[in-house]
Design brief:
Elements (H helix, E strand, L loop, with lengths): L6 H19 L6 H4 L8 H17 L6 H17 L2 H6 L4 H23 L6 H27 L1 H7 L8 H21 L3 H20 L2 H4 L4 H31 L3
Helix pairs in contact: 1-3, 1-12, 3-4, 4-6, 6-7, 6-12, 7-9, 7-12, 8-9, 9-10, 10-12
Length: about 260
C-alpha cells in the first residue's frame, strides 16, 4: 500500500495563502523583510513578485512533475527573506527577535531543501545531501524557536487563550520545554520521528487555538492573516521533516 505524505501539500497551501494575503492587503509597510531594502523606488513591485512566486511555488509543489520547481522557487524566495533579516541582526545583535525572525524564515528553506532532495532522481548523492542538510537546518531552527519562547516567555504566554486551564504561563513553559526536547531529539537522531510528529501536532494546535480565531476577532490586522499563513508554513515544514524521517524508516525496513 502506498503511503500518502501530506507535508509538502500543507507547505504549498501555506505559500498560496501568503501570496493571496499579500495581493489582497496592499499594505507594504507591514512587509518587514522588504524594510531591509530601505527606500527602494516602487518596492511594492518586489512584493507583488514575491507573492506571485509564492502562489506559483505553492501550486507547483502539489504535483510530482513540478514539485522540484515549486520547492526551488519557494526555497529561493524564503532564503532571500531570511537573508533580509541579516541587516537587522547586524544592527541589533543582542535583540533575539531579529535572530528569531531569521530562523522562522530559514525553517521554510529547510522544508524546501528536503522536498527538492527527496524528489530528485533516485540514487543521487547530491539530492541525499540536500535533504539531510534541510533536516539538520530544521533542527537548528527548532533550537531558535526554543530560545525565542524562553527569551520572550511573557509574550508567548500572551498568545495563549486565557480560557485554557491551568493558565497561559503554564502552556508557555510547557511548549518551550517541548521545543527544547524536540530540538535535542532531531539533532541527536534519538526518537527523531516522534519528535517531528509531536512538533507538527503542537504547531497545528497553535494554528487552531491561537491563529485561526485571530481574524475573526480583528479582521483588519494583517498580522492576523499573515500569522495564520506563517504558522501553517512552519507546520508544513515540520510535517515535511516527519514525512522525510518516516520515508527513511520505511525504506530501511526489510520487505
Amino acid at each position: 500500500m502506498t503511503r500518502t505524505y501530506l507535508g509538502r501539500h500543507v507547505y504549498g497551501l501555506a505559500a498560496v495563502a501568503f501570496g493571496i494575503v499579500t495581493l489582497a492587503w496592499h499594505d507594504f509597510n507591514n512587509w518587514q523583510q522588504i524594510g531591509a531594502l530601505g527606500d527602494v523606488p516602487h518596492r511594492e513591485i518586489l512584493v507583488y513578485i514575491a507573492a506571485a512566486i509564492e502562489i506559483f511555488g505553492g501550486l507547483a509543489i502539489q504535483w510530482t512533475r513540478t514539485v522540484r520547481a515549486g520547492a526551488l522557487a519557494l526555497g529561493s524566495l524564503y532564503l532571500i527573506f531570511a537573508l533580509l533579516w541579516v541587516p537587522y541582526i547586524v544592527a541589533e545583535p543582542r535583540v533575539f527577535d531579529r535572530w528569531g525572525n531569521f530562523f522562522e524564515q530559514f525553517s521554510l528553506v529547510s522544508g524546501a531543501l528536503i522536498v527538492y532532495g527527496s524528489f530528485s532522481p533516485s540514487g543521487s548523492q547530491r539530492a541525499a545531501v540536500l535533504a539531510r542538510l534541510g533536516y539538520i537546518f530544521f533542527g537548528i531552527c527548532v533550537v531558535s524557536f526554543t530560545l525565542e519562547q524562553l527569551v520572550y516567555l511573557s509574550g508567548t504566554a500572551s498568545f495563549v487563550p486565557k480560557w485554557i486551564p491551568p493558565g497561559p504561563m503554564f502552556w508557555a513553559i510547557v511548549t518551550t520545554i517541548a521545543f527544547a526536547l524536540a530540538a535535542i531529539a532531531l539533532l541527536s537522531g534519538r526518537s527523531a520521528l516522534l519528535a517531528a510528529r509531536l512538533t507538527t501536532a503542537m504547531l497545528i494546535g497553535f494554528g487552531l487555538l491561537v491563529w485561526l480565531p485571530a481574524p475573526f476577532a480583528d479582521p483588519h490586522k494583517i498580522i492576523n492573516w499573515a500569522g495564520n499563513a506563517q504558522n501553517l508554513a512552519i507546520t508544513g515544514a515540520a510535517w515535511i521533516v516527519a514525512d522525510f524521517l518516516s520515508q527513511k524508516r520505511s525504506t530501511s525496513l526489510p520487505t
